[in-house]
Amino acid sequence: MSNIKCAWPKGSSKEIIRLFQAAGYSLPSDIDESRKYTISGQHIDYILVKPQDVPILVEYGAADIGIAGKDALLEQRREVIELLDLGTNRSRLAVLGASKKQPFHDITVGTGHPQIATAYFAAHKIQANVITLSGNLQTALSSRLADAVVDKVEEEHAAQSSPLHETIMHISDRLIVNRVSYALKYRQIDSICSALSLVL
User: Fold this and answer.
1) CA–CA–CA angle 54, 79, 36 (5° rounding)
2) Which one of 62, 87, 116, 132 is at 20 to 30 Å from 152 when CA atoms are compared?
3) Which residue in 89, 77, 75, 70 sits closest to 134, CA to CA?
4) Which residues of 147-157 are buried (b: 16+ CB within 10 A; e: fewer)?
5) pLDDT string in tens for the chain (200-residue length)
6) 118 burial class (0-12, 13-18, 19+ CB within 10 angstroms)?
7) Radius of gyration from C-alpha coordinates of the chain
8) Distance of alpha carbon 163 from its chain centroid, rounded?
C-alpha cells in the first residue's frame, strides 16, 4: 500500500511538526530547512510547498491531504474537504489602520485576502476599493496608499495591534483532503485524522 501524500507548508510553525510527531508520524524536526521537495516518512510522504499552494495541490490530486490556513481556504475556495481543525497557527484576520472614529465609507483597503475583504465590506454595506498587495501591508498605511488594511494578526499580538478596528474572523490550520483520495484511500486518511485528533 502506497504512502499518503501530504502537501506540507514550508515555513510552518513548530506546532504542526510536534503535532504530527506526537501522533506517531516520523518527520524531521528541521523539515522546513530541507532543500528537498519531498521527504518520505512512515505512512506519509511530505511534499514541501509554499503555504498558498497547498489547497491547489490537494484539489488537483498532486497530494492526498494537506495543511492549510482557514483564511487560504476561504480566499481560494478550492474543491477540497476540510477534515480537522488542527488548532495551530491561531490568528485573526482583522481590519487595521482605520480609526474607530473614522467613518467607514468610500475607503481604499490593501490586503492579501481580496475575496474575503470584498465580501466583508459588501456584507457591511461599506463602499471599499480593495487592492491586492503582498508583503508588509503596514507600508500601504504609512505611504497612504490605503486607508486601512485587512491582515493577519497573531492572537498574542492582537492587543498590541493599534488601531485594531474589527476582527473579521479567527483562523487556524486545517487538515484538508482531495475528494477522490478520500473515497479511494478512506481507511488510511481516516487513520491519520484519528491519530491527530487524539493529540489535539
Assistant:
1) 20
2) 62
3) 75
4) bbbbbbbeeee
5) 799 999 999 887 788 999 999 999 988 777 776 677 888 888 999 999 999 999 999 999 999 999 999 999 999 999 999 999 999 999 999 999 865 555 567 899 999 999 999 999 999 999 999 999 988 888 888 888 999 999 998 866 555 555 667 899 999 999 999 999 999 999 999 999 999 999 99
6) middle
7) 19
8) 24
Which residues, other chains included, contact 13 with Cβ-Cβ below 8 Å and sequence gap of 6+? 88, 89
* Contact call for residues 82 and 172 (beta carbons, < 8 A): no
C-alpha 32/C-alpha 9 separation (Å) is 8
For the stretch 130-150, pLDDT in tens is: 999 988 888 888 888 999 999
- Asked whether the bond before 114 is cis by omega within 30 degrees of 0, the reply is no
